[in-house]
Structures are given as structure tokens and as C-alpha cells.
Write a structure and sequence with these properties.
Layout (H helix, E strand, L loop, with lengths): L1 H7 L1 H54 L6 H14 L3 E9 L5 E5 L10 H10 L3 E7 L7 E11 L5 E10 L1 H78 L2 H4 L2 H31 L8 E4 H18 L3 E4 L7 E4 L1 H17 L5 E9 L2 E8 L33 H11 L3 E7 L3 E9 L5 H4 L1
Parallel strand pairs: 7-9
Antiparallel strand pairs: 1-2, 1-5, 3-4, 4-5, 6-8, 9-10, 10-12, 11-12
Helix pairs in contact: 1-2, 2-5, 5-7, 7-10, 8-9, 9-10
């Protein structure tokens, strides 16, 4: 259901994802940046205005003492401006009579930009007023300033005039410009990263769709193998049964050619049964449908049965198959049939890949583990094939193994069964010398009732 929906909405999903990445995220970043910059400028202007008001009040106290001497007043205003880079100009309007304010300034250009309404408001309401203006002082370019108008008082608290202070916002504007420039760089880098992510997304999305398709194909393959194996099992059983009956027919066995043909039928049907059983095991394991009943099992009994089953084959090849019984009974928790299958696969491989010599089975007990070793004097495993020994459909590839039958599934199944019962399997091998498989299971100590 999900895969079908994913496939149908492939391009729609890509389009939506592209819109989110290319439009919404950059837009949110731009809006957030503008909001932060505006907030920053508002706060800076607020602090600058407060600073202007503070400076204005301090200057007003000093200026009020020199109102009567224009020369000293002009000199004092020039000194204040020279010592304070942020102050571009100062203007003083002193009261001559009830209706007239005379003018003294540090700059001849302020006359063109000062606000008489602001001055009258400050003088009449006895409050400080401020406003933003754009003006140029001297030969410099126009810049943003705060014009602050404040009333002045004498020692008797009588109004004696108004003082205007032109405080530059150039430093704040420079900081804002740098911040804006840095924000644009961050935004550009973010857009580039988003575009790269978008390009990568298309690739990942294609891979995701391909992965879903491959998963579907893999599931279909597993289902097909499982069904095919089940369907093959019944006719194979019938063929094997009739082939066995034919080998007991005295009239047929009297002819050597017929006996050879019957042998081929029996061998081939047995190989097909092994393949079918292996395919069924692979299917059950991959679909997690294999049933394992963990119970206390005596290893000696299991390995004795394995040796008894494989002894005739070993004898045919002239091999010595030896099981070195431990001094004590060894128990593990596991499924009896699965444990037997594990050791049949391992010992069977040892017999199969050992042209001459011996196969020895023995145990070690170490740190709560019972280690079962199967050591042979066979052809060994090439070093370059060790890393894929337990992979599905993998067999040792060499001239010596060309005529040895096998499905390439036995060791993979063996490893899966060992691990599902809480064990580990290891292999050591020297090419043309021999191989040793080791299967480790936690040693189980049975209760007195179980031991009896």
C-alpha cells in the first residue's frame, strides 16, 4: 500500500519537497532576518535617543552659564562638538523677549535643517522633543541624525532658551549595513546548501523508490521460492520413493546398465531434496517464520547421531571420522533438530571437502561456553574467499571443488540457526592443509531433575 502510494505520488512529492526547500525555508529566513534587523535598529535608535537626551541635559546646564557672551558660547559649542564625534552640531536659541529667540550655532548649515516647530514645542511645553532627519554638515554626505530640542533654564528655573543637538546615527547605520551584508551572505550560503540538498534529495528519493521496488521484488522472490519449493517437495518424495523401490527390484538390478541408471536417479533426487529443503529453510529464516524450541540438549547424543549418519560416507572415501567424547556431559539450550542440522552441515562439508585424511570432532569449555570444533585435513579455503564464506549461494571455487555438488546455502543456514539459538560460529583455514569450524554455545547447567 505504501509503496504503491509512493510510486504514484513520486513527482508530486518531489515538487512539494522542492517548494518547501526553495520557497518556504529561504522566505522564513529572510523574514526572520528582516525582523531581527528592524528590531536591532529600533533598539539602537532607542538607545541613541536616550543618549542624546542625556547629552542634551548635560550640555544645557553648561550652555546656560554662557548665554550672555556669544564669543564664549560659540567657542564652548565648538569644543563640545570637537570632543564628541557623534555630535555633528549644536544650536542655541536664547530668549531676548517673550516672543524672540536669538540664534547661535556651531555650523552655518544647520539653519537650513532645524525645525522651528520642534523648538517652539520644546520651549512652550517645557519638554524634550526629538526627530530623525537627513542632513549634510559641511562637505560631508547627507546622513541620518537625531535632532533633539530641549528647553534651557537659569538658576531660578526660568526658561531662557532652547538648545538643539544634532547627533549622528552614522555608526549605527554602518553596523546595520555590515549586519545586513553578513545576513545576505548567510542567506546566499543557505540557498546554495538548500539547492545542494534538493539535488541530493532527488537522488535519495530515486534510491528510496528503487529500494522499495527491490524490496517488493525480493519479497516476491521469497514467496516464489517458498511456493516452488513446497510444490517440488511432494513430487520429489514420490520420485525418491519409486526410485528406492526400483532399486529393490531384482529383475532390474540384474542388469548393470539399469542399476547405474537407477543410481543416477536416486542421487539426483537426493540432491534435489537437499536443494528444496535448503530453499525452504532460507525462506523461513528470511521471513522469520522458522520455529526454534529451546530446550536443554545433550551435545554428545546429537553429535553421536551426526557421526553415525555420516560415517558410511566417510568410510567410502577412506576417511577417519573421529568424535572425541568429553569427560562430562555437556548441555546447551537449543532445538534438537536444528542442532543436528547445524552439525550435519559442518561435518558433512568436512567429509565432502576432505579427499584423504581425517575429520576430528572435540569440545572445549571456556568462560561459560562450550566450544565444539570440527577439524579436517581437507583442501582448505583460499584467503580471498574467507570473507564471503557464509554468504548465500557461495561455494569455494577452485579446480578441486569443481566436481563436488552443493547448493551454496548450507553455511548461510548454519550461521543463521547458530545465531538464533544464541551461539557464534567461527572458521580457521589454511589452503591445502585443512579447516576448523568452531561453534560456541553458552554452557547450560541442568537442574538435578533435568539431569536425571
Amino acid at each position: 500500500m505504501f509503496s504503491e502510494l509512493l510510486r504514484k505520488n513520486h513527482y508530486l512529492g518531489q515538487l512539494i519537497y522542492a517548494i518547501i526547500l526553495v520557497v518556504l525555508i529561504p522566505s522564513a529566513l529572510v523574514v526572520n532576518t528582516i525582523y531581527l534587523l528592524n528590531s536591532f535598529q529600533r533598539d539602537m535608535d532607542y538607545e541613541l535617543n536616550n543618549k542624546a537626551l542625556l547629552v542634551q541635559s548635560v550640555i544645557a546646564m553648561h550652555v546656560s552659564d554662557n548665554l550672555d557672551n556669544n564669543t564664549d558660547l560659540k567657542s564652548m559649542l565648538d569644543n563640545i562638538v570637537a570632543d564628541s564625534p557623534e555630535i555633528r552640531a549644536l544650536e542655541v536659541f536664547k530668549l531676548k523677549n517673550q516672543n524672540t529667540l536669538s540664534f547661535t550655532s556651531t555650523s552655518t548649515l544647520t539653519r537650513a535643517v532645524y525645525d522651528p516647530v520642534l523648538n517652539h514645542l520644546a520651549f512652550s511645553s517645557e519638554k524634550v522633543y526629538s526627530k530623525q532627519i537627513n542632513a549634510a554638515m559641511g562637505e560631508s554626505e547627507a546622513e541620518r541624525m537625531w535632532l533633539v530640542a530641549a528647553p534651557m533654564y537659569d538658576e531660578s528655573a526660568n526658561k531662557i532658551g532652547v538648545i538643539n543637538t544634532y547627533i549622528s546615527a552614522a555608526q549605527i547605520d554602518a553596523i546595520m549595513q555590515r549586519t545586513m551584508y553578513d545576513s545576505l551572505k548567510v542567506l546566499l550560503v543557505t540557498l546554495i546548501v538548500i539547492l545542494l540538498l534538493l539535488i541530493n534529495h532527488f537522488s535519495l528519493f530515486e534510491r528510496a523508490v528503487a529500494f522499495v521496488k527491490l524490496k517488493e521484488i525480493d519479497n516476491l522472490k521469497d514467496d516464489f521460492i517458498s511456493i516452488a519449493a513446497h510444490e517440488l517437495k511432494t513430487p520429489l518424495t514420490i520420485i525418491s520413493s519409486y526410485a528406492f523401490l526400483l532399486t529393490k527390484n531384482k529383475e532390474l538390478t540384474q542388469h548393470p546398465e539399469m542399476q547405474d541408471e537407477l543410481h543416477k536417479i536416486v542421487v539426483s533426487s537426493d540432491r534435489l531434496k537437499v536443494l528444496v529443503n535448503d530453499l525452504l529453510d532460507v525462506s523461513r529464516i528470511e521471513m522469520n517464520k522458522i520455529i526454534i524450541e529451546k530446550k536443554p540438549q545433550e551435545l554428545q547424543e546429537i553429535l553421536k547421531n551426526v557421526v553415525d549418519q555420516l560415517a558410511p560416507e566417510a568410510q567410502k572415501k577412506g576417511l577417519t571420522l573421529q568424535y572425541m567424547l568429553p569427560a562430562q556431559k555437556l548441555f546447551v539450550l537449543g532445538d534438537k533438530n536444528k542442532l543436528e542440522q547445524i552439525f550435519i552441515n559442518i561435518v558433512g562439508n568436512a567429509v565432502k571437502y576432505t579427499p584423504d585424511g581425517s575429520i576430528t570432532i572435540y569440545h572445549d569449555i571456556e568462560k561459560g561456553l562450550v566450544k565444539t570444533h570440527v577439524k579436517d585435513t581437507g583442501i582448505g579455503i583460499p584467503p580471498d574467499q574467507m570473507n564471503r564464506l557464509f554468504a548465500k549461494f557461495t561455494r569455494i571455487s577452485s579446480e578441486k571443488t569443481a566436481g563436488i555438488p552443493g547448493t551454496g546455502l548450507g553455511l548461510w543456514i548454519t550461521k543463521q540457526l547458530v545465531e538464533k539459538m544464541g551461539g557464534k560460529i567461527y572458521v580457521e583455514s589454511i589452503e591445502n592443509t585443512g579447516t576448523q569450524f568452531s561453534v560456541n554455545f553458552p554452557l547450560y547447567i541442568p537442574t538435578p531433575q533435568e539431569n536425571t
